[in-house]
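Consider the following assembly input.
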Amino acid sequence: MSFLDRITEGWRKNRKPGYYEEFDYHWAMTIDLDQCSGCGACVTACQAENNLPIVGEDAFTKGREIKWLRLEHYWEGEYPDVKLNVIPMMCQHCDSAPCETVCPVSATYHNQDGLNTQIYNRCIGTRSCAVYCPYEVRYFNYNDHAWESPLDQQLNPDVSVREKGVMEKCTFCIQRIRQAKDNAKDDGRRRVRDGEVQPACVQTCPTKAMVFGDRNDPKSQVSQSLNDPRAYKVLDELNTHSSVVYLKKVEAEG
Amino acid sequence: MDGELNQLKYTDIHNDVVRSIVETGPNYYIALITAFAFTLICFFFPWFYQLYYGIGAAGMNHPGVWGTYLASFIFWIGLSHSGTLLSCVLHITNSSWRKAMYRSAEAMTLFSLVVAAIMVMVHVGRPWFIHWAAPYPNQMEMWPNFRSPLLFDVMAITTYLTGSTIFIYMGSIPDFAAVRDRTQGWRNTMYSLMSLGWRGTDTEWHRLHWAYTFLAVLIIPLAVSVHSIVSWDFAMSIVPALHQTIFAPYFVVGAIYSGTAGIVTVMFVLRKFMDFGQYITELHFDNLGKLLLVLSLLWTYINIVEVFTGFYSGASGEIEALNYRLFGFYAPLYWEMIAFCAIAPLLCAFKSFRTSFVPMLVLSIAINIGMYTERFLIVATSLSRQYLPDAWGLYVPSAVEISILLGTFALFTTLFLLFVKVFPSVSMYEVKETMESPKKSTPAASEGSPA
């Protein structure tokens, strides 16, 4: 191999944000907007599962609400001919994530499972990742949050409670993924089966609009869902290579 | 003007400069105590409150996660630019008019950088872990992320701070020695240490000159790179109106522009309150005014390019961000910036304007207000209009932020006031170089110092 080829190869390799050529699992999600009723159950489930703080009235009016998964509302037309489009928006776990390259301390990085992870202990709070994220799904802890008794009793022991000055975001419920992988290992080195792990939002969705699974497994439900002709990615033109795929709402003509 | 350099004698320079260090009037103490009190009340108390409470003490929110702290950071980095950079360029081009003013200009660089570094601490969420952004061997076996423009920034600023510290210190060594020879007691001991045993032999002068020129050549590209890298904090993102190739030259020009205006302000203050009227003359204001005119034209040109490329792109995100900047909530600030930084400096085309001190002071302050606005707008307007309309928002600074912003000026003033009592704020030996040698006394040889 010539010197130039080696340089080229090294360049290509290091252009990969996570430095991985392939992922062990490649977790992905599809959200069928035709089935989504915009009920908001996923938002509540996420809040309960991941110890999201209730920021209070004051912080809410200042626009400091923390919702790893939010429902974006887009209105079309004028009253009374108005139509509401709802799109659930959470961390898209981009394989080419802008937030990962900008963090000066590598507090956010791509792991072996194709997940975009956030290490709260490492975060120094430059908030640059939130600026670089085109989906606006990173949330900053502007101050410490309190869970008054007995609310502190419902905190999920598998998820850390974040202190002031750190960034947080959707993790695809990494604690559940870890649990599933541990169980799989205990069963004797098998891989996690399709449907064995579900994030809280997917588990809760009453219309089963959300599907979660391993993209590396061609037989998984999510892989089949990805082949749907309605599939599209939000802001795909930015080349973020996101892991969340939306299935477009089909509307009757006329 | 009665203060022609040629009428001065070598001894006068020594006396004037040493007097500015040794003799301290009550006005100085009043100024110092006021500045320090303001620093404490406006800067440190709000900051401590913010450390206790969290960044929530500032007005930042969900889309607007960056605010005035970052704007102040860029502003102070920008202000730091002209000092050492201008001094280096003028040194290499043998412009002798630089010699009376460069020491205080370089001090401005140094203290602006210090203030900027403190602003980073104010900005981040957990400043007690800020050292993690530095590459040092540690028990966690973790390196910082070398792909991050913020890390480039840490490197660039540290290098620039080190470079300009060495530059100003080395240029001051003969002057420290001069002060050493004219003081007694603890001052003598201090300046003996600081002058590093300078004796003024030919070899020493030769080496000093060589090293000084070497550093000057080194610092010019460094200064350009520092602000390019600061611009990459923004330009490397994919945020509409920030993701622009013009940003590096835009920031460099903006930095030199606001820095030059800053020098005019500092020159005026030094001239007025330190009795340096004989050294800082109309010539300096004239030359700095010409420089301001050129820089303002360059700055305007880049602004036009920025607006035009945004308009020409046709991308919905870019157009929206541009519309918002020109006609949205922050639009009055935008047009204020244009008035202060693009239109007002055109007055510098007139020599009568450039050589009058008070109008130049007003202009220089207006330019820096405009330049602060520019930095604020870059942060605020771009973040409030990003790709997803559902996440659009508004950011308004809180009282804590405004207080800290004002406090940075008090902090800078405090540091500068301490500086003028430690460093000879006019370079004695280089001013002497511009004078006629005492042996051949031809007083009517020239007007002003040779340019």
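The first helix of chain B runs from residue 10 to 22. Ask yourself how this observation constrains the way the partners meet.
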